[in-house]
Amino acid sequence: MGFKPFFTRRALFGAVASAGLLLSAGAALAQSVKVAGIWTLPVEQQWISRIHKALKAADERGDIEYVWSENVANTDYERVMREYAESGVNLIVGEVFGLERAARKVARDYPETAFLMGSSFGPVAPNFSVFDNWIHEPSYLTGMIAGAMTESNVIGMVGGYAIPEVNRLMNAFMDGAREVNPDVKFLVNFIDSWYDPPKAKESAFAMMDAGADIMYAERFGVSDAAVERGVKAIGNVIDTSADYPNTILASALWHMEPTIDRAIANVAKGTWEAADYGQYSFMAYGGGSIVVDENLVPADVLARVREREQEIKDGLFRVNVNDAAPVSDK
Predict the structure, then answer these.
(1) How many CB atoms lie within 10 A of CB 35?
(2) Which one of 14, 36, 97, 316 has the largest count of C-beta atoms within 10 Å of its C-beta?
(3) What does the alpha-carbon distance between residue 225 and residue 232 come to, in Å, rounded to a whole number?
């Protein structure tokens, strides 16, 4: 049981030059890799949108044929996985946080199908690979900006759930802020939801009432509160600065293209194996980056951040990975 090689629509098949005859017996037909995405939330949701964007780009290039299902309930996830596997897709991509046992069981039942899943745990041979949004490095850099620019020395942080994937980003942000400002204090709250903008907004208002003048917007709703109160915010995963002008100082961005493109190439070549693709979200691979509003961030602060950014890319500075739940300082 191995993974069969696949070729893109743009692959060129040779001819027998001397005779001008087409290769016949044994020649493979051009075909793209068939990929299915399974999402528990809408594809517009910030985390999922980054994966969906990378898959759509590969589809538009002709490298894959991409189909997806969104808003899949946890109770339906296993069924949808099996339906896609039975349909003959070559690669299934999705997020299985909280559904680990069911998803891994499905993968065992379809050993010739490649699975690439957002997961808190490790890969399992022969076909279950994992990934995550390892953007702790740009998160650290955005923390440096926040720490340098806060005037009250109080920064508010609103997160979805206190899980490792969120915790490590928030802790990195806090470490970056403390590097440039040892006096900074943090207010931290988790709303226990991936999408509840009103609740996130309410939490942000409470932190501003307690003195926070910069908000870390891990969830939607926080930046809306920042606009209403005239304070600054730090974005996460996607760039929302156009939606919140004069508000977003900087954002830590996640780019899934390096991960997705490597996964597709491995399936196409027939070299797929269980692996952890997390490293491809690191800045050195182009999986993470920082975007800064240079109209809002002073030149000296930006220069210090850019210096640290280059050190990270050159392997001269390592951002600590801390999966523990962050807590408020006061």
Answers:
(1) 26
(2) 36
(3) 10
This prediction's pTM = 0.86
Nearest Cα residue to 115 out of 97, 89, 135: 89
- The alpha carbon of residue 190 and the mean position of all alpha carbons in its chain are separated, in whole angstroms, by 19
Asked, for residue 61, whether it belongs to a domain, the answer is yes
* Rg of the chain in Å (alpha carbons): 22
Please check whether residues 201 and 218 belong to one and the same domain: yes
Digit-coded pLDDT (tens) for 291-306: 999 999 999 999 999 9
Determine the Cα–Cα distance for residues 94 and 200; give it in Å rounded to an integer.
25
90 is a domain residue:
yes
In the three-class reduction of DSSP (H, G, I as helix; E, B as strand; rest coil), residue 226 is classed as helix
pLDDT digits (tens, 9 = 90+) for 224-249: 999 999 999 999 999 999 999 999 99
Strand partners, 234: 216, 250
Residue 60, Cβ density class (10 Å: 0-12 exposed, 13-18 middle, ≥19 buried): exposed
Note down the domain range covering 105: 30-131
202: its two tokens: 């309410």
